[in-house]
Amino acid sequence: MSDTSAVNVEVTARLELAVAVAREAGWITLEYFRSEDLRVDRKGDDTPVTIADRRAEEHLRHRIAEVFPDDSVFGEELPERSGPSDFRWIVDPIDGTKSFIHGVPLYGTLVGVEHEGRPAVGVIYAPGTQECVYAATGQGAWYFHGKAKPQRAEVSRCGRLSEGLFLTSEIKTWSEIGRADAYARLDATARLARTWGDCYGYLMVATGRAEAMVDPLMALWDSAALLPILREAGGRFTDWHDQETTHGGEGIGTNGHVHEEVLRLLRGDG
Q1: pTM over 0.85
Q2: For residue 261, what pLDDT is reported?
Q3: Is the dihedral of CA 30, 34, 36, 40 positive or negative?
């Protein structure tokens, strides 16, 4: 077996586990979803966190360690665990905690896997809607809903933002970083703009239901799973400087056709 084939086998094995554990962690969050007893704490950066976040991440880490004990694991809620292999898992048990604590089902569990520092696997599982989109480099992107058989996930063919849907997670974040003007340009140009954001917005782009999803602020655990999914679905994921990276601190996910237009609007020259 060639080195490339061996890596592909290793990546596929991790993709299969990533889909399984994302679903399992998502089911854990549903135990607390819309619960009157859910307690919300505040982290040092004033962002919310719940017992559902912690329990789901603990489960993710336990299951990954069971199957791939030599892999590193990096997540939002617990310290990083280093391992000797070339693979690193990057997990976010609840992406969209604000939606979660308010009983809105547009949140999800994110699982990404890097190989030698490059994004190789991505999974978005939305337990509240029972939707999942997942991908591995060179293997296409796939989508399923409930118990339905997975089908190819493909971005839309819409070529102009004026004919498309633009999504973001929270409008006031644009003002907080001094880029309210950029949001206003995107909002004015798009046929429709909504805050169906966080990871669900990227799921919508990857399945052809939205043309662009833009985030002004992102951590690595927010973005690690997204690049493989958008790329394999035929779209693009970059930072605001058009670099294909999950480390940019912000994100643009599009169907590819409107990507340059979104960049021009962000810069203010289009």
Answers
A1: yes
A2: 98
A3: positive
